Batch of 4 targets.
Target 1
Amino acid sequence: MSQQTPPDDVRIEPPDGPDYTPHEPADNDRRRRRPAAGSVDETTGWAHDALLDMARHGLVEQRRARRWKVFFRFVSVALLIWSLTLVTLIFQASERTAPGLSKPTAAVIDITGIIAADQPTEARKIIPRLEKAFEEDNVKGIVLRMNTPGGSPVQSSAIFNAIQRLKKEYPDKPIYAVCEDMCASGGYYIAAAVDEIYANPSSIVGSIGVRMDSFGFVDAMRKLGIERRLLTAGENKALADPFSPADPDDTDYLEGVLEEIHVQFIEAVKAGRGDRLVEDEAIFSGLFYTGQTAREKGLVDGFDSVRTVIRDRIGVEHSIDLTPRSNRLEKLLGVTAAEFGGALTGLSHEPAVPMMLP
C-alpha cells in the first residue's frame, strides 16, 4: 500500500510468480470481444477470477449450511418422538403400578363399545386384565361395567371361557357384571359368565341371537349397465357375494352356520345362569328387554350400580380401574394411513361375518 492510498482503502495486488495461472474464460466468454493488450480489463482479470472463486465458495458453504440445517431438524423431530414415546411408557408404567393395590380394593374393567378384534374390548386385551385382577391378593372382587351392544362371537366366547376358568382357580374371589345403558348380545354372552348380574330398570339387556349383515346390488348394477366378472376356484368361494343374485342353497347354508353359533350362545347362557332363568324360549329368540323385564326372566339378579356393588357386595371402599386403554402416543399421532384412507373413502373391505348385535 503506497503513501497516497488512504488507510481504509484495500487494494489486492495481482499475484506474481511462475505458479500463477490466469483464469481461462468459458466458451461463451470467448465470443466476447477480447480486451486490448495492456488495457485495464486485462490487468484486472485476476480480480474477476478471485470474485468468481469467492462466489463459488460462498455457494458451497450455503449448500453445506442448508444440509446441516435439515439434519438438525431431522434430529430434533427424532428426539421429540423419542421423548413422547418415553413419556408414554412412563405413564403406562405408572398405570400398571398404580396405587390402590396396596390396600383392599375392587377392580373395575369396562366392556364398552363393539366387541371385536383390534378394539379395546378384544379378548387379548381384556383377558390379561382379568388375570391380573384375580391374581392380586388385595383385589377382593371384580366388577365388569357393561355398556356394549355386542359384537364378535369369537371374542365374546374367549372372554366368557377365561372368566369361567379364573372362577375355578380363584373360587373365593367374586366377579359381578353391572349393565349400564346396554348389555346386549355378545355383551350379555360375557356377562353370563360372572357370579351375579345387576342392571338399571331402564337398561337394555338380552338379545341372545346371531346376525349377519349384507347387501344386494344386482338390480342397481343392471340398471347402471355394470357387468359382474367374478372368477373363483371352488364352487362356494363366492358365497354371499353381494354383487351376485341370492342363491337359496347359500342362504340355507349360512342360516345353518348362524344357528350353530346361536346354539353355542344359548348353552353358554344356560351354563352361566342355570336355574335363575325362567322357562321361556322367547329369551333366546333375539329379543332384548328392559332391566325390569330382564329381572323377571332371570337374565339379571337385581338393580344396582357399580358403586353400590363395590361397597355393599364386595365390601370395600376403594376401587382401581384396570380397563385397557389406548396408547397415548397412538392418540397423539393419530390413525394409521389405512385407517385414514378408510375414513376418507368410507369404504370397508371386510367380508360379512356373524355378529352378536341387537
Target 2
Amino acid sequence: MSVIAGARSDPAVLRRAIAAGFVGTVIEWYDFIIFGTVSVIAFSKVFYPEQTPFIALLLSLGTFAVGFVARPVGGIFFGYLGDRIGRRYTLIVTLTVMGIATLLIGLLPGYQSIGDAAPTLLIILRLLQGFSLGGEFGGVATLLIEHAPKDRRGAVGGWAQAGGFVGPLLGTGVILILRATLSDAELVSWGWRLPFLLSILLILVSAYIRTHVTESPEFERARAEKELSKQPIRSVLMEYPKEIFCVFGMHAGNAILFYTGLIFAVAYITRNVGLSQNKALWANAVFLLAAAIACILVARLSDRVGRKPIYLTGTILGMGMAFPLFWLLDTGSLPIVLIASAIMGTIEGGFLYGIQPSYFGELFPTKFRYLGMSLGYQAATVLVGATAPIIGLLLIESAGGSTWGFSLYLIAILVLAAVSVLIAGETMHRDIGRVDKERNESVPASIGAEGAPI
C-alpha cells in the first residue's frame, strides 16, 4: 500500500494524469461536438439537398443523434477493457478511433458527388465517433479520481469535465472564424471540412500526453491483490443495479440541459427567434465558457460541502429555468440571450457535470468502476441527451411554436435526476478502494475526508 500511496502523493504523476484527462477530453469533445454544430449549419445542404428545409434539418439532427446509439456499445466495450487491462491503454485506443473517424468525415464527399452513399458513410463515421466517446468519460473519470488524494477527488475530476466544455468552445471558435472569413457558399462547399481536418494536430498532442501517463495506482493495487473481476459486466449488473440507475438518472438531468443549451438552442435561436447563426454560435461560446469556469470552481467546492447538496441544487436550478430560458431567448435581444446562455452553462457545468467523476466514481468499487459509470452514463446520454434536440423540435412544431411542452419535459427529466441524487446519498467520505464494504455504512457529517473534523 505504501507504493500506491506514494504514487498518489507524487505531484508530477498527478499533473500528468490531469493533463492526459483534460487534453484528451478536449479533443474527444471537440471532434464530437463540431459534428453537431456543422450538422445545423451545413449538413442539411451537403448531405440532404433533395429534402425540404425542415426535413433536411431533422435528418441532420438525426444523423447527429445516431452517434449516440453507439455510445452504450462503446461504454460497455471500453468499460470491460478498462476494468480488465487498465485505464491508460484503453484511453489511448478511444482517442485513436475518434481521430480516424473525424479525419475521414473531413474528407467525405457530399451528396452531389456520390449520392446516397454520402449520408450512409457519414452515419457510419458518426457511429465510430460515438463508439469512441462511449469509452471516454468512464476512463478519464476513473483514471483521475484513482490518482487523486482522497480530499481532492472532486477538484481533480473537475478538470477532466472542464475539457468537455473547452473542446466544444474551441470548435465553436474555429467555426466562428470560418464564418467571419468565408461566405455561406464557401462554408457549405468546403469550409465545413476544416474543423474536422484541423483536429488531427490536436489529436497528436493528446496522444503524446496519454502515452506518458502512468496507470492508476488504485487499479494497480486491485490487480496486484487479485481483486479484478473476471466477469465485470455480469457482476456489476447483479451487484450494483441501484448505483447504475442513480448514474443514469443523475446524468439524464445533466444531458437534457447540455444538449438543450448547446445543440438545440442553435436550431431554436436561428429558426424560431430569427437570430443569425453567428449570434447563435456566440451564445454557444458563452454557455461553454461559463460552464468550464463553473465546472472547476464548484468541483473544488464539492470536496468541502459534499456531492449530494451541489447536485441536488443543480437539478432545482435547472427546473427553475425550464420556462424562463425560452422567455429570455424569445426576446431576440443578443445581450439577454447571452445572459440566458451563461446561466444555463453555470447550472449545467458547475452544479451537475463538474462533480460527476467524483460522485459517480465513488459509487463503484475499483474492479468495475470504469464499466459501472459507463453503463448508466451512456444509457442516459442516448435516451435523453441524443433525443433532446429532436424532441424539442417536434414538441415546439406540434404546438405551433409554443415551448411549454418542451419546458415540462425538461422539468420531468430533472425530477428524475433529483430523485436519483436522493437515492445515491453522499459519497465524498468513501475510501474508493473499499466501496464494497463502505457503501452501506453511515459516515458522520462532522468527519472530514481524512477522518478529521471539518
Target 3
Amino acid sequence: MRREEELKDFIDIASHELRHPATVLKGYAVTLRECWKELGVEDHTRMFRALEEGADRLTRLAGMPPDVSRMERGRFRPEKGEVNLLSMVEEAVGEMRGMGFTNRFRVSTFSGECHLEGDGERVR
C-alpha cells in the first residue's frame, strides 16, 4: 500500500511538472499564430527561442523517471553547481510576461543575490 501511494504521488508530481512547459509551449504557439503580423522580428525570435527552451525542458523532464528509479536504488548523482535563485525567478517571471501575464511581481533578497549549491534543473 505504501509503495502504491508513493507511486501515485510521483505520478501527480510528474503530471504537474510536465503541464507547465506544455502550457508555455502552447501559449507561445498560439500567440505566434494569432499575432504573427503584429509582432516584430525580435518578438518572433524571442518566442521561437522560448519554444525551443520549453521543448528542451520537456525532454529533460521526460528523463526524470529513470532518475527517480536510480534514487531509490542509491545510484543517483545530482549535478551540483551554483544555482542563482534570483535569476531563476526572473526567468520564470519573464516567461509569464512573454505569455501575456501583466501581474506585478516583486522579489527581494537581503543581499541582492541568492545562491545555493544544487542541481539547477531539478531546482527549476
Target 4
Amino acid sequence: MTETDDVSRALTGWYLSLAARSNAAFLPLYFDTHRYLVLKGGGGSGKSVFAATKLLERCLAEPGHRFLVCRKVARTLKESCWRLFERMLSERGLRGAVKLSRSEPSMSFPNGSMLLFAGLDDVEKLKSIADLTGIWVEEASEITEDDFRQLDIRLRGETAWYKQIILSFNPVSANHWLKRRFFDEPDARARVHESCYLDNRFLDAEAVRTLEDFAKNGEDDYHYQVYCLGHWGVTGNTVFHAPSIQRQLDRRIEPARIGYFRYTDDGRALREAAWTDDPAGFISVYAPPEPGAPYVIGADTAGEGSDCFVAQVLDNRTGRQAAVLRRRTDEDLFARQLWCLGRWYNWALIGVETNFSTYPILELERLRYPRQYVRETVDDYTHAVRRSYGFRTDSRTRPVIIAGLVQVLRDDPEAVCDRTTLLELLSFVRTERWDRPEAAPGAHDDCVMALAIAHGIRGQQSYFTAPPAPPDRSEWTRDRWEDWERATPEEREEMMKRVNG
C-alpha cells in the first residue's frame, strides 16, 4: 500500500467521522472558502454547533490559526460559545491536549492554533487582538454594521490557509443591515446559508414538540415562521397579514423572464424597442403579456428616502402582479423603460407618482405615450375641474390606496409573487411613534407604493380582454408624426381611429 493510499484512507475516515457528527445541510460548508459565510437560521437549526465544529476542525488540521470567537457582549460568551467548545473538546477527548485560559479567554492547540474569545463591548481589548486568520460572530444580529467593518479589517494575519468570517444569527428583523448587506444584493465573496430545526437531526423530540406547538396555535403562527423556520421578521405592527406574505415567500416563485428593453432614441421617438433577456436585468416578468389583455402600471419615482424607481404591472382582469421594474437610474432612462414596458403590455394604462417630480410624465408625453392616468382636481377659486397626468400621493389619497391594497391581499394572498415586493410588504408597519403606515426604519416601500398606485388607478382601464391591439404606432413615418403634432385633439382622435382600423 502506498503513502497516497494511506492519506486517502485517512481523509475518507475523517470525512465519514465528520458526516456522522454533522447535519447533512451543513456538511458542504466545511469545505466552503468564501470570505463571508453567512448562516441565517431559526432556533434549534444547529448552525452554532456547525460553526464551532468547523473552527475546531480547522484548528486541529491547520497549524498557526488565530481565530476570534465573539458576541456583542463579552459576558454572554461564557454561557454560549466557550461552554460549547469545552463540551466538544471533552467529547473528542482533547481536554488534556488543549490549554484553556479563562483569565484571558483563549484555547491553545499543540500545533500553534488558537481560539480567542472577546466581546465587541470591550473595544480596547479588541484593538489588542491582531493577526486574525478567522472570525466567528455568534448572534450576529446583535452587532452593528460598523462593528462588522471593524472586524473585517482585522482579518489580515499571515497564513497559508484561507481567511473566513462566519456570521450566525436568527433573522428577527427584515430591516437589519445583514439582510441589506448579504441578501438583498448578492456578494460574490459571500456564501449565504439558510436552515431551521427541520435540518437538525440531533434535536430531541421534546425540543421539536416545543417548537412545533407554535404552529398549532394560530396566534403564534408568525412566531413559528420567524423564530422556528428562520424567516425574516419585522419590528412593529405589520399593516399586511404577515403569515400570508410569509407563505407566499415560502413558495419561492421565480420570474418567467428577467431582462430589460433595448431601443433606439432618435430624439423624437423610441424606435426598434425590443425585450432583451438578461439575468442581470432589472425587470422581472412573472406573466408575459397576453394579446388583448388589459394592463395597468403603477410607478413610484425615487424621491425622499428612496433610491429606486419602481414600476408594478398588473393584469387588470385579475389584479395580479405581472411584472416588476426596479432600478437605481435617472428619470429619463426610467421613463423610456416605462414607455417600452407599457407598449409591450398592450399600451397599458400608466400612473406615475408626481410628488417629487413630473419629469417622467413629461418624458412619456414627449414620447407620445397614448395612455396615462388622469387625476381630477377642483380649483378652489373658479371651481373648475382641472385634469392632470399622474398620481398624487397625499394625506387624502395615500390612506385610500393603502387600504385598497390591504383588501386586495386579504382577498387574494397570491396576487403578489415578487420576492422584493413581498419583503417590503412584510416590513410595511404602523410604527409606535406614528400611526401612519410606512416602511420600518431601514426598510424601503418603493415596491409597496407602486403596487398601491397600480391598484388605485385600475378604474381607468378596462377589465376585459379587448380585440387585437392596434398597429405599432412607434413605426409611424416622420410625416405622420408631423401631421400629429399639428393636429387638433379632434383631428388626432380621427387619426387614431384610422390607425386602429
